[in-house]
Amino acid sequence: MLIKTYSSAVYGVDASTITVEINIDQGVNFYLVGLPDSAIKESQHRIVAALKNNDFRWPGFRITVNLAPADIRKEGSAYDLPIAVGILAASDQVFFPDLDSFIIVGELSLDGGLMPVNGVLAIALQAKKDGYSALVLPAVNAREAAIVEGIEVYAAKDLKETVEILKNKKGFSPIKVDSSKEFKLHLENPSIDFSEVKGQENIKRALEIAAAGGHNVLLIGPPGAGKTMLAKRMPTILPPLSLSEALETTKVHSVAGKLGKNGSIVSQRPFRSPHHSISDVALVGGGSFPQPGEISLANNGILFLDELPEFKRTVLEVMRQPMEDRKVTVSRARLSVDFPASFMLVASMNPCPCGYYNHPNKECVCGPGMVQKYLNKISGPLLDRIDLHVEVTPVGIEEISSKQLAEKSVVIRERVIKARNIQNERFAKLEGIHANAQMESKQLRQVCELSKEGMDLLRAAIEKLNLSGRAYDRILKVARTIADLDNSKDIEPNHLAEAVQYRSLDRESWVN
Hints:
Blueprint: E1 2-11, E2 14-25, E3 30-33, H1 38-41, H2 43-52, E4 62-68, H3 80-90, E5 102-104, E6 107-108, E7 114-115, H4 120-129, E8 134-138, H5 142-145, E9 152-156, H6 159-167, H7 179-185, H8 201-213, E10 217-220, H9 227-232, H10 243-255, E11 271-272, H11 280-284, E12 285-286, E13 291-292, H12 294-297, E14 302-305, H13 313-317, H14 320-325, E15 327-331, E16 336-340, E17 344-349, H15 370-375, H16 380-384, E18 388-391, H17 397-400, H18 409-426, H19 441-447, H20 452-465, H21 469-485, H22 493-501, H23 507-511
Parallel strand pairs: 3-4, 5-8, 8-9, 10-17, 10-18, 11-14, 14-17
Antiparallel strand pairs: 1-2, 2-4, 6-7, 12-13, 15-16
Helix pairs in contact: 2-3, 8-18, 8-21, 20-22, 21-22
């Protein structure tokens, strides 16, 4: 007897429906075909134990399981449950009246319990798109899938409960989650705040500009100047995630298995801070079966690289294309997947190996040429892609001991949101562009027109600092953001002057 059940496979951050065909015929063997990986090939042993421990029997016939389409490699243990259900139906142990309307996913433990799987949000979105009316999956994953409206999500704790749901779903209530309410519920007050940072007003100003326009920023200064402290407070001044951004971010974290137990929706902008020993594959994503890397996990949030020169050069160079395209394409012989990578890069570094070059009080002990060699670890093309280079100087004892309260993050955030609203109106008709940093050359020429005075100022700066054409574009984008913060329709010379000063850490001017 032939029975078909339906499951789903996740490739990149999207899912594809998989037809699980189970045929029972004369014989005594078990065949699993359709390019399964080792985890799927081992499913027979889990299914046999789960059936026997839940008062079902393993059919004493030849069982052939085909995972279609057969030319796409399948990975993971989420096919245990649809295979087990198909075997029960094909062996006439249980009759399921409406099996064609369900997508079934779940890993079986030996006692029949259901273990969580990754990528459930992507699976639910694809199931709705393909016209399925219901989804049965492990209870731990239910709230994550229930975010998707228009499809019934049933949570099962074990094989027996799955069978009962499929026999009579009317006897069970689908999981309901109000995505908007859930999103707002998880918006919490941050535990850290910019008001805790004493002094450093010029650095806070630079970070406000970066947040307002979505610009990349590099903080350079001696140890203990507050670079990491400032960077960790960046998420507190970023605009809140929109619901669509939250769903996109949740998809990536779901595929990577980073949501946690009973996770539902990511409501805070991600802040990822990988160690400098990270590999290039771990940073950008990849593997034989591609998985998202740190830059995709930082999508719609911040990627913080502390001690930037300590990262391997190959690791830093693979970021160049994602920083421009805001996506990562991982290609394999049979598969090519895209991961989103629209992140803000916040990096920090010491100015030299000893850390005290240009320090106001301590003397640098680095030998001749060592400062230049240290900065050479970061390539010029990568520096060009960082919009703001900000020198962080140590804070004096008077400012550290001051009891005067600094500006709170919520106040800065209000200004950032107003500037972002201006940009949202400006780019309303352009798909994929929401902030000034995302502008391409065409939009740049349209919204960043300069007066003759401004053009003369910018030309002089470019020639003096020996900046590249890409740096020219970056200055215009930053100047446009500064004008938005001032609620100015035009880019004034003072906006350009401030934007130019944030390129002063380019290699030529910094060392000489």
